Amino acid sequence: MNAKNLIGGLMIGAILGAAAGLLLAPASGERTMKKIGKGSLKLKKSLKQYVEGSVGALRDQFNEKIDHLAKRGKESINQVSERGKESINHLSERVKV
After folding, report:
1. What pLDDT was estimated at residue 70?
2. Fewer CB atoms inside 10 Å of the end CB: C or N, the chain?
3. How far apart are CA 34 and CA 36, in angstroms?
């Protein structure tokens, strides 16, 4: 997740730097507004992709954890069941004697 944070930070920094360059560069107001509009659309698209990627990664991690917990739960249930069967068998043998 740290690599994604770094990449996301670099993307946002690059976009903000480009926006600052547009604002500081000599150009007509209308042209500057068009550039800002295009830049904001690019920023929106980049942020959307970044968020979707992050959400996807979190979903994958969540599903892995759930699968792991389900597997451990099944193993625990099987162990308790086996111990119960052993206890019942042991008690049955003692009662027969």
Report:
1. 95
2. C
3. 5
